Amino acid sequence: MTSILRFLQIFALGTWVGGIIFLSFIEAPGVFSILSNREQAGSIVGYSLTRLHYIGMIAALIYLIAGLALAKSARWFIAPAAILVVLMLALTLVSEYGVRPRMAALRAQMTSVEATPLENPTRTKFDRLHRASVQLEATALLLGIAAVFLTARR
Q: Between the CA of residue 92 and those of 45, 65, 121, what are the distances in Å?
């Protein structure tokens, strides 16, 4: 049973971190370089990001439940790897339910993000939220890599 629980932890975290890597370094740059319409490219990446966030939420639950079952004590939640996964989950929730809806509302106010001048207040807010979204994902990735390391070394 211990091997199965440890496998679930590594698999859940590896899937989540791998998804972030794929989206950030393969899909997003690829879609934006292939499609001439940046609005469509943004929609595709946004669609994928939402799915990645759902995968992350599920992965976090699997990881934490498996860790609790392995430790047989709630004190496990103060272990460094568990704290990192909880932080990843928090960043994912902020991104999905805080940043992304606000970006969507701003996008709806603009005819086109690309056609809206950079100095337009709506575009400025959108760009700020986009940077925050990228920073949230980058931080989740770094925390995830550290959590994989801490989990694997046990």
A: 15, 18, 26
- Give the separation between CA 124 and CA 41, rounded to whole angstroms: 20
* The two three-digit tokens of residue 64, written as one number: 């934490």
pLDDT tens column, 113-136: 999 999 999 999 999 999 999 999
Contact of 14 with 148, CB cutoff 8 Å: yes
85-116 tens-digit pLDDT: 999 999 999 999 999 999 999 999 998 999 99
Hey, where are the domains in the chain?
A: 2-153
Tell me if residue 67 falls in helix, strand or coil: helix
The token pair that represents 18 in the structure block? 């791998």
Q: pTM score, two decimals?
A: 0.94
- Whether residue 112 contacts residue 100, with contact meaning beta carbons closer than 8 Å, is answered with no
Length of the chain (residues): 154
